[in-house]
Design brief:
The protein has 71 residues and is an alpha+beta fold. The chain contains one helix and two strands; from the N terminus they run ββα. The protein has one helix at 35-48; strands at 10-13, 28-31. The longest helix has 14 residues, at 35-48.
Length: 71
């Protein structure tokens, strides 16, 4: 059996890798239908991001595109 997707939970990212942000900017919106799960998701979200005063974005997001013809 496949797991069900709960359409009442999720995340909307307002800022992305390399974007400049200010202290008043809303970086993301977390949606949840359970207070404890929201708290857990928030803690995971905060740990997943590092904010820096210096733009450290030099890494490519996409390194290569491989098509089925090239396989």
């Amino acid at each position: 059996k496949e797991s069900e997707i709960d359409m009442t939970v999720g995340i909307h990212l307002n800022k992305h890798l390399g974007d400049a942000i200010h202290s008043t900017d809303e970086i993301a919106v977390l949606y949840a239908n359970d207070e404890q799960k929201l708290k857990s998701a928030y803690e995971r979200f905060v740990k997943a991001y590092t904010l820096s005063a210096i733009n450290t974005f030099d890494n490519k997001i996409i390194y290569e595109v491989i098509t089925k013809e090239e396989l």
